[in-house]
Amino acid sequence: MSSNPARVIPVISVVVPVYNEEATVVILVNRLNDVFSKLQVDWELVFALDPCTDHTEDKILELIGAGFPIRLVKFSRRFGKPLSVIAGLRHCLGEACVVIDSDLQDPPELIGEMIDKWRDGNLVVIAQRTSRLGENFFYLKAAELFYWILDKFSEVKIPRNSGDFRLLDKRVVDEMLKIHERHGFLRGLTALVGFKTAIIPFQRNPRLAGKTQISVLGAVGIALDGIVPFSKAPIRLVLALGLVIFSAGLVSGLVFTIWGLFRGFSDNSGLHALLLSFWMLFGLTIGCLGIVGEYVLRCYEDSRGRPLFIVEKIVESENLMRKMQ
């Protein structure tokens, strides 16, 4: 572990959340090194590492020993990708920060174009996927639905088909880090703080090696993190459904009463319809409670004031290329 009392600011920071990516980290670092060598700018690489079950950490330590400008931030336990990104942003010192995944589906070679857009005055530069090669058909359709919901109901505009691959100016990072939310959804937080934004379209490649570390439940969690904190629509939908159900129940009750007064109450079809309506309303009620629960849960989690993440150790290369403030 190393520490430096002086504040240092490299020109560009690259934040990479990483978990079980031993097959790709070395290739990623070499490609980043090639990119920045051609650009002739100082840079640092911040690996935000969830404790791995493979040799990812060992590979990163070898890269640090080889002299690459790397800062390794390792957590005490697995906190997940969203919080890993937030932690990486807190530990980067650059005038601008690029967030990129370690699986090389997002090409590091696009960083040069991002920096050009940044130098033109854009404080946010977002890479937008025009295609997503090698991904599951049902996953793609679910992603389309997710972005449709965001587009229709989110309080902030989040570009469609945009992942976490983006460049953020230091001012943007500073403003984002003032938002102390446990379920940090980078795409939503970026849109929330605003600032001038540029879009760069690109074709996303298949994963270079290994398999995705995000489970189905994890993907659902990320989707909820994107919808719930940035939209009042789900909770208002519950209110609307409640009013509709109350009105429908009131009308149905009046119709059933009038029917019974004039035709008698011996017809069993009315009982069957009542039972069916009961089970439908029961399922709908449980679903609505789940939606309300998501909002309550997030309020409860944030109100406890627990740390968003816990860092076990920080390891830095002695050859970090720096500019003194």
Q: Any idea what the radius of gyration is?
A: 25 Å
Outline, from the CA principal axes? Answer: elongated
Classification by helices and strands? alpha/beta
Sheet having the most strands: 8 strands, mixed
Q: Strand order, main sheet: write it out.
A: 7-5-6-4-1-2-3-8
So, the CATH homologous superfamily of the largest domain? Answer: Spore Coat Polysaccharide Biosynthesis Protein SpsA, Chain A
Helix content: 40-55%
Under CATH, the topology of the largest domain can be stated as Spore Coat Polysaccharide Biosynthesis Protein SpsA, Chain A
Overview of the molecule:
The chain is α/β, with parallel strands linked by helices and 325 residues long. It folds into 2 domains: 12-215 and 307-316, Spore Coat Polysaccharide Biosynthesis Protein SpsA, Chain A; 233-303. The chain is 48% helix and 17% strand. It has 10 helices and 8 strands. The protein has helices at 25-39, 56-65, 81-90, 111-119, 137-153, 170-176, 186-193, 216-227, 233-263, 268-303; strands at residues 12-18, 43-49, 70-75, 96-99, 124-132, 162-169, 197-204, 311-316. Helix 9 (233-263) packs antiparallel against helix 10 (268-303). The longest helix has 36 residues, at 268-303.
In short:
The protein has helices spanning 25-39, 56-65, 81-90, 111-119, 137-153, 170-176, 186-193, 216-227, 233-263, 268-303; strands at 12-18, 43-49, 70-75, 96-99, 124-132, 162-169, 197-204, 311-316.
Comma- or semicolon-separated keywords:
48% helix; Spore Coat Polysaccharide Biosynthesis Protein SpsA, Chain A; 10 helices; 8 strands; 325 residues; alpha/beta
